[in-house]
Input
Amino acid sequence: MGKAIVKMNIATYSGEEYVLEIPCKKDDIDDLIISRAWKKLKEEEGGSLPYGNRSAEIIKRIA
Output
């Protein structure tokens, strides 16, 4: 099992930015990995995230 480094932004007044390491398989599609990243971030932040436009990108995949 590999991992992916995901950079996520929430466009609030302060411009929230997060970088998470997400476990993934070699053939997992990007949307699935990004979805897991948002879920993990929400859990880490206590169940809710600030309001604002959200974007995410996979910076690196490690097999």
Summary: The longest strand covers residues 2-11. The beta strands are 2-11, 16-24, 53-62.
